[in-house]
Write a structure and sequence with these properties.
Transcription Regulator spoIIAA, Rossmann fold, 5-stranded parallel beta sheet, OB fold (Dihydrolipoamide Acetyltransferase, E2P), alpha/beta
Length: about 425
């Protein structure tokens, strides 16, 4: 059978889809694009914003129009299970906690004696090590869709990384809905720092990248482990707002001063590290002074990029009832200003790397060269006049920055020292 995946939203969704792709491929089926005449389309939806809801509905409609069998899962499906079934009686809706059971809906292909493909389309696959969230941020509906924090035991994670190693992958991304809570629910004594140590000691994977971690979940032990040269020098630390009044209304567990102190400690400890953040613009009650406080803080801090989200009211959350609401025109203008700042910070950081050598993983191949990602999260285009295998490690020197990419040149070998 020909199976298509449509994955929306977070890295955790990406990790879940990647694992399902692999299991389906192992059963002798082919992973294809929806436009390539798929027999089944699996849609892993998102509901973090109103826009994500809209994209999820669009994807479902598109799959139905393609006359394929449709299986819908993910957070939008979890929160809208009944209405989805009523409006689309022909589709199957699978709850988040039963997502792995989708494999049971797809039989083995007994006519195939070999794997059709690896089942993994990303060259830097994501591994879900944790799910759920114990926080109660006033704007967020995800705890209702994902439940409380649940961690995967270390040995299961090690086994998955070794499997990916055997397939030739050089980097993995550890993800979770609330990654910093890793291990707190398990019956053994472990946390994110000890998990990283076990991965370093028990596998040979070249690069380990972390997804989002909350600022108050960093400690000296975790920072010490991140120093290891196999851990990518790239951290994503959500901020959401840089005004204490707004942070209180968001029900965040830190203030601006606490965030700034830890952020600068991290920046001083790691040279040339990429630090990104999330911010929400136009949160209810946000006045011009609140927004200006945030912009002043963002501009003064060592961020290398910002993920900027206009506030999206989620029914059932505390923030949905807050007044006054920021007008859409004001919100749009503030979003534009924040994204302009993000673009400037990204270019400044990339330009500071001109002349430096990096290792990239060949992710996207074109007729003229390759695009890959450095340890510190710079997208680099490198002209190549010979064939490079996708997923190959390539040593490059960054030469310039333009059109949303850094450009680089090949340096000597295509394998880093020790490989």
């Amino acid at each position: 059978m020909r199976i298509a995946f449509v994955t929306l939203g977070c890295r955790t969704n990406q990790a879940e889809s990647t694992r399902l792709e692999q299991m389906i491929s192992d059963r002798g089926h082919q992973i294809v694009d929806l436009s390539e005449g798929a027999d089944i389309c699996i849609i892993n939806t998102c509901s973090v914003t109103e826009k994500a809801d809209h994209q999820s509905r669009q994807s479902i409609t598109r799959a139905i129009k393609a006359k394929t069998e449709v299986i819908v899962t993910g957070c939008y499906a979890e929160l809208n299970n009944k209405s989805l079934k009523e409006k689309n009686p022909g589709i199957k809706v699978i709850c988040n906690n039963a997502k792995c059971s989708i494999i049971n809906l797809i039989p083995y292909n007994s006519s195939s004696s070999t794997l059709v493909n690896s089942g993994i389309t990303r060259k830097r696959p994501t591994i879900k090590v944790q799910d759920g969230c114990n926080n109660a941020c006033s704007y967020c509906i995800i705890p209702s869709a994902r439940g409380r924090s649940r961690s995967v035991y270390p040995q299961e994670i090690i086994g998955e990384i070794r499997r990916l190693e055997s397939l030739g992958f050089e980097e993995i991304v550890l993800s979770g809905i609330h990654l910093g809570l890793y291990g707190k629910d398990l019956t053994i004594d472990c946390n994110l720092a000890t998990l990283l140590e076990e991965i370093i000691n028990s596998t040979k994977i070249t690069r380990i990248r972390l997804s989002s971690i909350e600022i108050n979940e960093f400690n000296d032990h975790l920072l010490q482990v991140i120093q290891h040269d196999r851990v990518c020098k790239h951290l994503h630390i959500p901020l959401q707002s840089a005004d204490d009044d707004i942070l209180v209304r968001m029900n965040r567990s830190y203030n601006v001063k606490e965030y700034g102190l830890m952020l600068n400690k991290i920046s001083r400890q790691f040279s040339n590290i990429s630090i990104g953040t999330d911010i929400i613009v136009g949160f209810p009650t946000e006045e011009e002074r609140h927004f200006n406080n945030m912009m002043t803080f963002l501009d003064s801090q060592p961020f290398t990029y910002l993920h900027v989200f206009p506030f999206s009211s989620r029914p059932g959350t505390a923030a949905a009832t807050l007044k006054p609401i920021v007008p859409n025109a004001v919100k749009k203008l503030r979003v534009s200003k924040a994204r302009e700042l993000s673009a400037r910070k990204k270019i400044t950081f990339w330009e500071s790397n001109i002349g430096l050598e990096h290792i990239i993983i060949a992710e996207t191949l074109t007729e003229n060269g390759i695009v890959g990602t450095t340890s510190n999260y710079i997208k680099v285009f490198v002209p190549m006049d010979y064939t490079v295998t996708p997923g190959m490690l390539v040593r490059i020197r960054i030469a310039g920055v333009s059109d949303g990419f850094a450009s680089g040149h090949l340096v000597n070998n295509v394998q880093p020292p020790g490989k």
